Every structure is written in C-alpha cells, then in structure tokens.
Amino acid sequence: MSPSQQATLNVEEARALRASGCTYRQIARQLGLSSAQLGHVRRTLSREKAGGTRLLRTTPNATARDFPVNQSILPWGLRRQLTSAGYRTLGDVAERLRDPNLPGLEAMPGVGPHKAALVKRLLDHHGLLPGNDDLRGAIEQLFPDLADPSGN
To answer: DSSP code of 21?
Structure first.
C-alpha cells in the first residue's frame, strides 16, 4: 500500500474510532501510528469538524451536500483540483458522478483511479454516492426551481 493510501486509510479508521469515543492517544495505540501520522490524522479530522461547524453556523439547515470540498478529508492536491474545476461542495461532485452524460472523475486531468476512489469513499461516507438515498438531490434534479438560489 502506498503512503498516501495508508494515510487515507488511517484517517478513515481514526474517524470511526473518534466517533465511537476514543481519544487520540487510544487511536494512536490501536492503529500503531507514529506521532507524525497522528498529527496528520488530528489536523485532517479537525479541518473536517471545523468545516462542518462553520457550515452549520452560517446555514442552519445545511446537509452533507452543502459541505465544502476544501474542508473535506481529501488530500490537499485533490481538494485543489476539484475546487479549481468548479466543484465547491460535495453535492456538486455527487452530481458530476450521477450525470450519465459526463465521464467519471478519472477523466479529469491528474485524477486517476486512486483519487477517484478516495472521492467515492468520501461521498459514500456522507451518503451522497449515486445509488444511495439522496432525497434532496433527487428533488433538486426533478424541480430545479426548488434549489437554493444562492448556490449553496
């Protein structure tokens, strides 16, 4: 497994352990992380939590679809690629994957199968992967006039 794949796996496992109430010290011991790896996990999870808190403070009825891509747990380069391509929220990325007329994320320059898999796992974690029950996305697709006019 490559170092970036291992780092992503560590973050995903740590997210689950943190949700179950484990401290970072317990997470480090259980996953066998070095202090640098634990620092990466802590920064990544803190960024994601702060992004969610900021989003709910500004938009109280926000959902996972409204979560900003640049606050997600995706690696820095991938977040930059997605935001420069115009995908501001996870909902925008989910719509790209849902549209059968557009090629998958692998067709974007610099995004290969590994990075596309990271995005798909993130969307699956938030319940936004096409095929999951995304009621708000389905309603917005059927009735575009009901979408938030501010673009959020």
So the answer is: T
- The tens digit of pLDDT for each residue in 9-46 reads 898 899 999 999 999 999 999 999 999 999 999 999 99
- Go through 50-81 and write b for each residue having 16 or more CB atoms within 10 A of its CB, e for each that does not: ebbeebeeeeeebbbbbbbbbbbbbbeebbeb
Please give the model's pTM, rounded to 2 decimal places. Answer: 0.72
Q: Is 85 helix (H, G, I), strand (E, B) or coil?
A: coil
Phi (first) and psi of residue 68, to 5 degrees: -65, 140
3-state secondary structure at position 89? strand
Give the C-alpha separation, 44 to 105, whole Å.
Answer: 23
The angle at the Cα of 21, spanning 15 to 24, to the nearest 5 degrees, equals 65
Where are the strands (E) in 3-101, listed by range?
Answer: none
The predicted-structure confidence for 85-98, as pLDDT tens digits, reads as follows 888 999 888 888 88
* Closest C-alpha to 48, from 32, 69, 17: 69
- Coil, helix or strand for 141? helix
